[in-house]
Each structure stands twice: as structure tokens, then as C-alpha cells.
Write a structure and sequence with these properties.
Largest sheet: 12 strands, parallel
Order of helices and strands: HEHEEEEEEEEEEEEEEEEEEEEEEEEE
Helix content: 10-25%
Number of helices: 2
Distance between the termini: 54 Å
Shape: globular
Radius of gyration: 20 Å
Strand content: 35-45%
Structural class: mainly beta
Length: about 300
């Protein structure tokens, strides 16, 4: 066989390999599991150190009693034998998260494909730092591994004014964290106007730093009809607002094989002052090592604004 013929064969093998990997990636994203599909969940049943969460009450208790002793634990959702396939959190209001600024979550959390629905966060009180607030199922993570989660229903946020707000359904601020096979299809409900000076908001995470995010679906709409309701920003503190369909602010992070969508009306009051960055994937990306590959997004974002700088 001639050298040119060999090179041609190698070329087409490479093309086939790339196409095959892309196809498999799309298949995996579409197959991110619900509770009946736990085949991709890692084998943790033999891990004596894994702490099983078997009910909504137990998840609430773990979050509300989170401390340094929980920070490096290995948690799993395990509803086998309970007769349920989801954790419905509608009866509970959370004013804590898994992971804090003082004690970031650095362990493992494997949802095993089970569904968490109707999360409610109320951070309007004084129990959290008046300077920084981290709102999401995971508030602050550092070195954690989070996988096989499915979040649905309505995710409700109530926050009071602070200097820096990091908010996302899955994570407020994720540092050096690995996410894989997570699906968030919840609708978002901000109960109050957003008063904070600086905001990082994304449907998945408020901020990602040095993190790897793989095989994720995050499709959200603001609570209303099939369209959107308002996210109202009223601060006149001349802050910085990073709003993304997936993440508010991404720094040195890799997003691969992900799908996201956000449907919302974003309204800035006439008195509002600030700099706003809005993006289909991320509000703001620092390019120091950041990569976004094999990513699909589909947003319906309407922005109503006067008297400030906006980048879209």
C-alpha cells in the first residue's frame, strides 16, 4: 500500500473517531439518569464510609446541621426499599447549604440518579455572612466530587441584601470541583427583588473556579407560564452582575458535553446602577485555562434596562 493511501486511511480513521466520540457524548447527555436508571452510578455500596441519605427529612437534617465534621464525608442518596423514587423537599425551607465559606464541602456526593425536587432556600435572615452569601444545594465546595444528581420541580430563592451573592441551583461557588452526570430541570423562583451589590448567577452554578464540569444538563425557566417571569434587579450600588444560562462567572474551568437553557425576563429598575454581563452559557469567562467544548445552549432571555453598562 502506498504512503499516500495509508495517510488517507489514517485521516478517515481520525475523522470517524472524532465523530463517534461526539455521538457518544450526546447519547450520554440524553441518558443522564433518573432514579430508575442507576446503571452509571459508581459502586459505593461496598464503601463502609459512605453515608446513605434515605429521605427528604434526612437530607434536610444533613444540610441544616452541616459542620466541619461533614465537610469531607462521602454521601449517597439511597431510596431502595423506601417505596419512593424522589426526595420531595417542598415541606422544608433551607437556610443552610452543603458547604460554607468557613468549611467548604470537599467530599463526595453521589445521587445515584435519584431525584431531588422543590428545593427552597431562604437566606433573608442574618445567619449568613452579610458580606458573602452562597446559595444552592452546595454553597461552597473545594476539591469535591458531585455526580448522578437529578434536580426538578421549583427551586425557590429568597435572599436579602449582601455585598457578594453567588447563586445557582446546584452550587453557589465551586472551587476545584468535579461535576459529572448532573441534570437540573427545575424552574427558578426569586421571591424578592435582587438587592445585592455584586451578583454571580447561573442556572447550574454562581461561580466555577478550577473546576471540571462534564455531561451536565441544566434547563431552567423562571416560574410563570411556559415563558418567563421577572428577575428584578434594583440595587443602585454600582456593582458587577454576571448572569449566565449555565454559570455566572467561570475562571480556569472546563465545561464539556453540556446542555443548558434559560428562559427569563431580566429587569433592571430605573434606579439601578451597575455593570452587567449576560451570556448564554456564562455571564463572564476568565480565559486563564477555561474551555467550553461540545456544548449546546438554547436561551430565551429578555433584558429590560436603562442607565447602566451591559454586555450581552
Amino acid at each position: 500500500m502506498s504512503k499516500s493511501a495509508k495517510n488517507l486511511i489514517i485521516f478517515w480513521l481520525i475523522i470517524f473517531g472524532v465523530a463517534f466520540c461526539a455521538m457518544i457524548g450526546k447519547f450520554i447527555i440524553s441518558a443522564i439518569p433518573k432514579s430508575e436508571n442507576k446503571e452509571i452510578a459508581v459502586s459505593v455500596q461496598g464503601d463502609d464510609e459512605a453515608l446513605a441519605i434515605k429521605s427528604a427529612q434526612e437530607l434536610y437534617d444533613v444540610i441544616q446541621n452541616y459542620s466541619a465534621s461533614y465537610s469531607n464525608k462521602h454521601f449517597i442518596l439511597d431510596l431502595e426499599g423506601t417505596g419512593k423514587d424522589k426526595l420531595d423537599m417542598s415541606e422544608f425551607t433551607l437556610d443552610r447549604t452543603l458547604g460554607t465559606e468557613a468549611n467548604p464541602f470537599s467530599g463526595k456526593f453521589d445521587g445515584q440518579g435519584y431525584e431531588i425536587t422543590n428545593l427552597k432556600f431562604d437566606f433573608s435572615g442574618t445567619q449568613n455572612s452579610p458580606t458573602n452569601k452562597y446559595v444552592g444545594l452546595f454553597g461552597v465546595t473545594n476539591g469535591a466530587e458531585i455526580s448522578n444528581l437529578y434536580i426538578s420541580g421549583v427551586t425557590t430563592f429568597k435572599v436579602s441584601s449582601c455585598t457578594n451573592l453567588y447563586v445557582g441551583v446546584v452550587a453557589g461557588n465551586a472551587i476545584s470541583t468535579k461535576f459529572s452526570y448532573v441534570q437540573n430541570v427545575s424552574r427558578i423562583n426569586f421571591q424578592d427583588d435582587i438587592l445585592d451589590k455584586n451578583v454571580n448567577f447561573g442556572t447550574f452554578a454562581g461561580q466555577l473556579t478550577n473546576s471540571n464540569v462534564n455531561y451536565i444538563v441544566s434547563r431552567c425557566a423562571s416560574v410563570s407560564n411556559a415563558g418567563a417571569s421577572n428577575l428584578n434587579f434594583v440595587s443602585n450600588a454600582s456593582g458587577i452582575y454576571n448572569i449566565g444560562g449555565f454559570v455566572g462567572y467561570a475562571n480556569n474551568s472546563v465545561l464539556s458535553f453540556c446542555v443548558s437553557a434559560l428562559s427569563a425576563n431580566i429587569v433592571f429598575a430605573d434606579t439601578f446602577r451597575g455593570t452587567v454581563n449576560i451570556g448564554g452559557i456564562a455571564g463572564l469567562v476568565q480565559h486563564h485555562g477555561s474551555e467550553i467544548v461540545n456544548y449546546t445552549f438554547d436561551n430565551n432571555i429578555n433584558v429590560y434596562t436603562t442607565n447602566f453598562n451591559v454586555n450581552i
